[in-house]
């Protein structure tokens, strides 16, 4: 059995040896697959997802570019979908990190194994960083709701830089801000180019608004109630008027807030394996603010990122 499964992954390693490779804004080399950059350890998993994952129409998928608020979105979706099961005083989010409650799809394809995901309870809540155009066809065919959250590239970049430096070790050298910035602008970041990833989902949300919801971290921060209600409706768990009156929406927002989650013991001291990296949960909580990048980027850097956004998004009606 093991041998059979290893054979399944063998072609991916062979394909990878033929792909363009760069030293990217990541702790490892990056490989280009279908226009996007992946780490050496993640790409075989992404290929396995593409070949083996069968989506169900009842699934709820959540997609992000790393550092765009994945931890928050996972918490919100989990809390929204499971609100009837859990009283707020004993909620799983109080003792378990949201990355364990809503796993990354690609990370389930680990150790050369093809997991049986049909055994997961319905609806399956799964997250991914895979770009829209590289999702398995079955996701598109299933018509399952797909929620995408993006964030302005300045805060995303600064958040990434801090994150990578925190998880770096002897083999994985940290980059200076300037080095990392160059690579990010050139598109060489995990699932980068950042702008292409965003545009991929933005266009999908325009083409198939019933299946793809596009959220912005900044809007979510500014008008959390409005967007949490939209989100609940989109994932087919709308709040009733009664629930709204009883304050259920506010309670979920409070439970999932940066202030609440970041102070919990599990998120202060807990850790888990993400593929082959052991990551402490506190690295997913840094400041949780909009605009913190202005404390790190020079005026020239800000201007450069703004210019790339203008060029890349020109004609698509998207601003970040
Ligand atoms: P900062 O580094 O700017 O603080 P991801 O979850 O995709 O890895 O993104 C991490 C970013 O989201 C970090 O941004 C983190 O602080 C912020 N974040 C984590 N939990 C949050 C929450 N509950 N509400 C708002 N922002 C949150």
UniProtKB/TrEMBL annotation:
Pfam families assigned: Sulfotransfer_1
GO molecular function per UniProt: sulfotransferase activity
Alphabetical keyword list: Transferase
Residues that span the membrane, as ranges: none
Gene3D superfamilies: P-loop containing nucleotide triphosphate hydrolases
Ranges for domain Sulfotransferase: 58-317
EC number: 2.8.2.-
Family: Belongs to the sulfotransferase 1 family.
Protein name as annotated: Sulfotransferase
Species of the source: Tetracentron sinense (Spur-leaf)
